[in-house]
Amino acid sequence: MTTNALDPSALEPSAPSALSLSTTDFSQLNLVKALQARLHHLGYQQATPIQAKAIPAILAGRDLLAGAKTGSGKTAAFALPLLQKLVGQRAGGGNHVGALVLVPTRELAQQVADSFISYGAELAPRAKVIAVFGGVSVNSQMLALRGGADILVATPGRLLDLLGSNAVKLSQLKALVLDEADRMLNLGFTEELGEILKQLPDQKQTLLFSATFPEEVLSLTAKLLTDPVEIQMQEAQSADIEQRVYTVNRSNKTALLAELIKVRQWRQVLVFASAKRSCDHLAQKLEKRGISAQVFHGDKAQGARSRVLDGFKNGEITVLIATDIAARGIDIDKLPVVINFELPRSPADYLHRIGRSGRAGETGEAISLISHDEYHHFKVIEKKNKLRLPREQYPGFEADAEAPLDCPSRQDKPMAKPEGTGKKKRKKLPKINDAIWKRPS
Ligand code: ADP
Ligand code: MG
Fold first, then answer.
1. Is 183 a pocket residue for ligand 1 (Cβ < 6 Å)?
2. Is residue 44 lining ligand 1, measured as CB closer than 6 Å?
3. pTM value > 0.90
4. Residue 416 domain-assigned (yes or no)
5. Which of 74, 98, 200, 340 could be a cystine partner for 368, CB 3.0 to 4.6 Å?
6. Distance from the alpha carbon of residue 291 to the mean position of ligand 2, in angstroms
7. Is 17's C-beta closer than 6 angstroms to any atom of ligand 1?
8. Is 180 helix (H, G, I), strand (E, B) or coil?
């Protein structure tokens, strides 16, 4: 088996820093005792590289532009200094918020809020941290926001709903965090983001985190950040991920996937499909082959999504089939393998996907099953990521030399639209009082 290390220079500023590489002790970072004690209790021995750089800059009040991939410890990098600066500082009254953290997905909102609560657990006074996101009832979120919060973690759509009904006020905001900014824009939140930004005070500290820096992110940073400290973690993202590519007839893909799962006996498998429908479809087909799999995508109710994620995290679920949007930002430990059952549309997402395997120094494996209709797109992915991977054939599942007659590449079918690209519909909520939120034109 060949190891295809990525050329580090090929990467956008990003990348993990194996958590163990850093040698900065948390005691060197001017954090208050209650935070240091908590980190000690959590078993965090040393700051990760991004934490070592970001924490002093944020404590000093600087804006921040940080490039680092999932798993590099970004949450603590912004949560610790924000907790230190904001807890106990909030003026009473109103539904005012001290810091707003915008994230692209529901899971991430909950996860980031949980991290704030955990990191701040030994602070006195306690931090008030609230997560708001769609897919669940808005009423309890409105109630929770009464009296304001130190930290509000939100997805853009639900935040706009809450702003529209005056359930939250951002006019006294001290700090704004954009977590996974590239993803947020990728998922079509550009307009929502613009509407939210217009409602924030000019004077505030802004921290922007992104794994990649495409045009849209760069123009956002230019608008939002004032003389930011820039941190870019440059270490190679996937040096220890073995990437394999099997060419296979589309009609044989499920059979090959089932074969791989049975033969390789992985502890856990994360399978990526391009759309919600193909996730469901694939799960049913695997079921018929005696493999039990769960799906994870945006059409599932929030409760079901949480249950599936917990089941996968604690090992009850072995095979998880997910779309890019749903899988983004979730904190799953060290997967042995990631399988691209269908290719991501965006070449950057290919790196995000494979980066889910072999986290924190473990060797991982990434397998792409490509059929004739995907050959061309895979070349684009390789080119953009400066990769060249040998095409292999899995014995018994070899691709035909020519695309078979039933292959979509012969029928000019467009690739399925990725989840999250459609126009978002938001339900209007009743106003709490008379002040009417006007949609900027
Ligand atoms: P990111 O936001 O960059 O994806 P997270 O903040 O979710 O990363 O952190 C990834 C994992 O690493 C989490 O499980 C977190 O608890 C753990 N972690 C973060 N910082 C440290 C540290 N300094 N020492 C040990 N573990 C850490
Ligand atoms: Mg994160």
1. no
2. yes
3. no
4. no
5. 340
6. 31
7. no
8. coil
